Amino acid sequence: MEYPPCVEINPEGDPRHSVIWLHGLGADGNDFVPLLPELRIPADRRVRFVFPNAPMLPVTVNNGYVMPAWYDIYAMDLMAKIDVKGILRSADYLLTLIDQEVERGVASGNILLAGFSQGGVIALAAALRTDKPLAGVMALSTYLPRAVPVDGSVRRRIFQAHGRMDDVVPWQAAMNARRRLEEMGHDLSWHEYDMAHSLCAEEVADMREWMLEVLG
């Protein structure tokens, strides 16, 4: 499986922290770059932002149309049948990106994973399948299928946010993920907003506050 090169936004000076941020279905690595000025992360935190690009895959629910996708979606009911193999493949790819950041001088405990929708599934799956220290995970408008095997033995700091009017990832799917993460004992910061499958200004403000805390 070929994963295209990542989009990178580097700070002045050597990075002390890295944020690896995965886009959703049909988007690309540039999707969240315009958000960075709104987050207003101080320059002295020296954060490198890495935005991976998903591979081009035929997506079953879209009549086999080839598009950027971290894994296949078989049906509109996201929980009906899960592409576990595809999810684990992309989660393993994300783990290699963590290793690359470590090789480039960023301690794994200073690496924050983030993902929107499909990207959030991969961020959670990767974080819960490694024992490496991590700064945390931002799981945005996403879910965590029970069929995906994870190891909850390492306690993670997780920012989970969802829109009450999300018509793509159902509210119940988000609540199921929340319940599973809490049952595993993770440090979960839950946020809900009057929005659809998107971001809103209030969420961005909450994300900024949480990121500044976990990025020290």
TrEMBL record:
<dbReference type="GO" id="GO:0016787">
    <property type="term" value="F:hydrolase activity"/>
</dbReference>
<dbReference type="InterPro" id="IPR003140">
    <property type="entry name" value="PLipase/COase/thioEstase"/>
</dbReference>
<dbReference type="Pfam" id="PF02230">
    <property type="entry name" value="Abhydrolase_2"/>
</dbReference>
<dbReference type="InterPro" id="IPR050565">
    <property type="entry name" value="LYPA1-2/EST-like"/>
</dbReference>
<feature type="domain" description="Phospholipase/carboxylesterase/thioesterase">
    <location>
        <begin position="10"/>
        <end position="210"/>
    </location>
</feature>
<comment type="similarity">
    <text>Belongs to the AB hydrolase superfamily. AB hydrolase 2 family.</text>
</comment>
<protein>
    <submittedName>
        <fullName>Phospholipase/carboxylesterase family protein</fullName>
    </submittedName>
</protein>
<keyword id="KW-0378">Hydrolase</keyword>
<dbReference type="InterPro" id="IPR029058">
    <property type="entry name" value="AB_hydrolase_fold"/>
</dbReference>
